[in-house]
Amino acid sequence: MPKPSLRDLQQFRTQAIEEIKFLPFSLPDIGAEEIAEVVDSLRSGWITTGPKTKRFEQDFAEFLGQGVEAIAVNSGTAGLHLALEAIGIGPGDEVITTPYTFTATAEVIRYLGATPVFVDIDPATFNIDPLQIEPAITPRTKAILPVHFAGLSCNMEAIIDLARRYGLKVVEDAAHALPTRYQGKLIGTLETEATVFSFYANKTLATGEGGMVVTRHADIAERCRIMRLHGISRDAFDRYTSTKPAWFYEVIAPGFKYNMSDLAASLGIHQLKKIWKFHERRTQLVEYYDSQLQDLPLKLPPHPPDGADLHAWHIYVIRLDESLKMSREAFIQQMAAKGIGCSVHFIPLHLHPYWKNTYHLKPQDFPHALSAYQQAVSLPLFTKMTDKDQERVITAVRELLE
Ligand SMILES: *Cc1c(COP(=O)(O)O)cnc(C)c1O
């Protein structure tokens, strides 16, 4: 038998994938408009921060309204770092946050030589529990960094009230929270110092890599703008368009390299235009999951408590009942065997070696985060999934749990 050619192998692989029809846990929804805009940038010669980034920032600020400023960066992590730097977090400071998050939320506190102080979550919402924040406040506490888990707003009234009473600053990790509403206001427009969105590949608005710092404080906005580009007082586009000589710039701080490229912004401009359409589809998928899974031995994800609130539905997290014989691991494995990708959000930070060892944390230190983690499964949820895809997920879940 002749050796198969590379082409044969590739074809075999494509066929095999087709047959399994593996449904991933998430996929971005990139349309012809995004692709055309990227091509336009490539042809224009502006492939770093330029006119498209400016436009994306303007569109984003306009989308949120309330006079906020938007500063585009190359990741949500970069945005969180910039925001904390801009509010003056430094060595010796403490920042209160949740263990039920991605490591980026806490690592940026370490970048600045400050200490993350973890407090447990509200078991009903997976969000930081405001009642546990107050006892964790010390004279070194400078800020609170809440995460709107899955796209459901934290109890911001309680958090902002605590911050006012203790003179603390608040930076929101809104990586999941576009578009999320709290008491009728979009996340990004609340009375906090800054809010940071992520446009990572699987987020509700995807630019591959990217993020946005949003603030209503002019001084914070200015500091973020300068620090995102080496601490230089003018960016390349500014130098290109300004009447001052293009070669002249001044370094006023040891900044970072966190600027967004116009290629990413090209995606963002069109993703933002579709954000309500995307949200409508996500909500539809969520409502159907809810209706088809409600009689099974699992907990459905929490909905906002109040009609003025809106869930962004970045992820759909069910909790398997503790009484089930099947472990969470076995459930995910058997879903994969049925060609369906599931995930877990999150492995709480206090279980990871770095955080555990550095801060001497035990699993039981955050019992609600631990138990949420042990039961949580994120089911596929993305705008491009079809009704048929969703039926497959529902059938698979029912087969495993009925
Ligand atoms: C995705 C994510 C981030 C980081 O965003 P990047 O754009 O990937 O840097 C931060 N916090 C949470 C909760 C996230 O899910």
Describe the structure.
With 402 residues, the chain is α/β, with parallel strands linked by helices. The protein folds into two domains: 6-24 and 275-401, Aspartate Aminotransferase, domain 1 (Alpha-Beta Complex); 32-273, Type I PLP-dependent aspartate aminotransferase-like (Major domain) (Aspartate Aminotransferase, domain 2). Strands 1-9-8-5-4-2-3 form a seven-stranded mixed β-sheet, with helices on both faces. A three-stranded antiparallel β-sheet has the order 10-11-12. A two-stranded antiparallel ribbon has the order 6-7. The chain is built from 15 helices and twelve strands. Helix 4 (76-86) packs across helix 5 (103-111) and helix 11 (275-293) runs parallel beside helix 15. The mean pLDDT is 95. Strand 4, helix 7 (156-166) and strand 5 form a beta-alpha-beta unit. The protein binds pyridoxal-5'-phosphate. Pyridoxal-5'-phosphate is lined by residues 75-77, 101-102, 104-105, 147, 173, 175-176, 198, 200, 211.
Output the keywords.
7-stranded mixed beta sheet, Aspartate Aminotransferase, domain 2, binds pyridoxal-5'-phosphate, 402 residues, 3-stranded antiparallel beta sheet, 2 domains, alpha/beta
Please summarize what this structure is.
The chain has 402 residues and is an alpha/beta fold. The chain has helices spanning 6-20, 32-44, 51-64, 76-86, 103-111, 130-133, 156-166, 218-227, 236-241, 262-273, 275-293, 328-337, 353-358, 367-375, 387-401; strands at 69-73, 94-97, 115-118, 141-145, 169-173, 181-182, 185-186, 194-198, 211-215, 298-299, 316-320, 376-379.
